[in-house]
Amino acid sequence: MITEKEITDRLEQKILAGGWNRIKPEDAIRKELAGMPIYDAPIFGFGDAHDPLFHTWKKPQVMHPDVLLPEDWLPGARTVISYFFPFTDQVRRANAKAGIRPADEWLHGRIEGQEMIAAVGRELCSILEEKGYAAVCPSLDPRFRMVADYVSNWSERHAAYICGLGTFGLSKGLITRKGIAGRFGSVITSCALPITERPYEGLTDYCIMCGKCQRNCPAQAIDRTKGCLAGKDHTLCSAYINENTRAVCGPSQKMRYGCGKCQVDVPCERGIPERRGKRQA
Predict the structure, then answer these.
(1) Residue 206 placed within a domain
(2) CA distance 109 to 120
(3) Would you call 136 helix, strand, or coil by DSSP?
(4) Strand, coil or helix: 96
(5) Which of 29, 130, 233, 237 is exposed most, by the fewest CB atoms within 10 A?
(6) What are phi and psi of 79, to 5 degrees?
(7) pLDDT of 202-235, one tens digit each?
(8) Residue 122 within a domain
(9) Confidence (pTM)
(10) Which residue positions does the secretion signal occupy (predicted)?
């Protein structure tokens, strides 16, 4: 039987040994960003693959009828492992200071940062498979696809909610105990691991509806008056990002895009924001 500690220790060793968490010189937009760490230490949540909440995804008002459940991705699924990697202070602070355009550091977090999330998913599957368990990373699986505008057949944020990592905010990001600024990944496995207790009941328990993300949004895509669950216009957000997608200077000349202004310089950037003078546990 593999343990949570064994999983996290193996991943940490691999990430450090492989240099996954640092910008390679050939990718650096600016020379001084070579070697920049992208993420701080991650947090993990473990969900029951048969949790009834997964079935709510198929409701049109939640996600889409064509969303795949854990057992659809992996027959015999027992556990969903969700992980959140928070961006470093360097990445977050740079984006907060950069005005309406995304900082180079944030663009690295979005592109190379997502490449690392994918590497973690592949490595986690390998670790589990070495121990004799089946494992699938939905976002890397050939079956992964969009089933409607802005809706894929697996949601990292919704999985993280079920796995006890956090609740949704006005900007539609997920607020965790390490904040909202970062990226999520997940793996489904036949290994039965101890389930993480959800320290919340509602979908938006951690959002204080302060409206700071709305004021930060250069696309004017967030409207607090519509409520937390309907307050973000994905079309406006996507259009702004598409307008700013470009090949940024650097040896690799990767196409880069991003924004993230709703995740920085906000009360939920680094943790669960205070409510009524008390910080939530």
Answers:
(1) yes
(2) 15
(3) strand
(4) helix
(5) 130
(6) -135, 140
(7) 999 999 999 999 999 999 999 999 999 899 999 9
(8) yes
(9) 0.94
(10) none
